[in-house]
Protein: Hemicentin-1-like von Willebrand factor A domain-containing protein
Amino acid sequence: LALTNTPPLSHIYVFTDAPAKDHELKDSIQALIEQTKCKVSFLLTNAISRRKRDVNARFGNQLYRVLARVSGGLAVVIQRALISSLTFIIEDSATTALVMLAFLS
Structure:
């Protein structure tokens, strides 16, 4: 949804604690990334201890990594407690660009 409702060349940050589940949408999402030229970064907090869920998380995280790489973004697994520190970095890098307009007569 973010790719269809965001201006081209945007940087989208996805915060999630769940592994990707809709693997069949990969090609559609990749096409949207290429069309919009958006960078998509995934911030993942799904370090799971149970073995079965851990396997599913790694498989889901691999899809996030593929989509991030295609878009030029990042896929980062981070501890939930560190998310607030990371958002400060994102805020610092998400500044608006100053545009100078010159009018010639």
